[in-house]
Design a protein that fits this description.
With 259 residues, the chain is mostly helical. The protein contains 13 helices and no strands.
Length: 259
């Protein structure tokens, strides 16, 4: 037999056999399932290959069970860690500016100012608390107090551009459109902040009911943001532009700016 097969290259057959064994290992569970559902396990129970298939399928099930248990344990540990994280590492206290905004919308500027003053008393070194109180003090007719608070917020801000943009948006929110437009003009005057300036100007015009002006400003903001490689501002400007285009012309919001 050895003499007959001595000159025969059996590597292709060995490769095919290896391929069949590999497919058997991969599909062992499916093979067992098919044969058992067909109720033909009795026909192959004495077959050596069937015993191998059963052993492989059993091993695969055991491995899968261990893997699922490991993954499940990991998920439980992750959930437990996330649940305990606020206890282990408590969040740093911060002023509730969201509550100020809600009170402004629902109860008016006077109630919002009371809350802003309370939040500032709790967090006297927080720039957001100072900025919110500043715009509301200005709205209430106390420009001197507002100026001191704006000076603090600007000093603590990460950038003058961010300070002007945030203050301008809050001024719009409290109805001080002239002051907000002044912040927009200050930003537009800066070559590195024109996108922010036109975005803010679009908000002012939208609040005043100037739909055409808002569309033009938001479009210019999007174009300038794209040219300045500020994709986040471009997205915001295009989103605001789309919203204005879809809206019917509305009555302007009352301007509370002091003239």
């Amino acid at each position: 037999m050895n003499e007959v097969g001595a000159g025969v290259d059996i590597r292709p057959e060995m490769n095919r056999a290896d391929f069949v064994r590999a497919r058997l290992r991969v599909n062992a569970a499916a093979i067992v399932d098919v044969i058992r559902r067909a109720d033909r396990a009795g026909e192959v129970e004495d077959c050596r290959s069937w015993a191998q298939v059963l052993a492989i399928a059993s091993d695969l099930r055991a491995r899968r069970t261990r893997r699922l248990a490991f993954v499940g344990l990991g998920a439980v540990l992750l959930i437990a860690t996330l649940a305990l994280l606020p206890v282990i590492v408590p969040a740093e206290p911060a002023p509730d500016t969201g509550a100020i905004s809600r009170v402004l919308a629902n109860e008016g500027a006077a109630a919002a100012l009371d809350l802003a003053r309370a939040e500032y008393e709790r967090f006297p070194d927080d720039p957001e608390a100072a900025l919110w109180r500043g715009v509301l003090e200005l709205r209430a007719g106390d420009p001197a107090a507002a100026a001191d608070l704006f000076e603090q917020a600007q000093r603590q801000a990460s950038s003058e551009i961010g300070f002007l943009f945030e203050r301008g948006n809050l001024l719009i929110q409290v109805g001080l459109f002239d002051d907000a437009e002044a912040d927009a003009a200050a930003l537009i005057a800066r070559p590195d902040a024109q996108a922010e300036g036109f975005l803010l100007l679009g908000g002012v015009r939208e609040a005043r009911g100037d739909r055409a002006g808002a569309i033009a400003a938001f479009q210019q903001a999007a174009d300038l943001a794209a040219a300045a490689n500020k994709p986040h501002l471009e997205v915001i400007a295009k989103t605001r532009l789309g919203m204005v285009l879809q809206m019917l012309p509305l009555a302007p919001t009352p301007d509370q700016s002091v003239r």
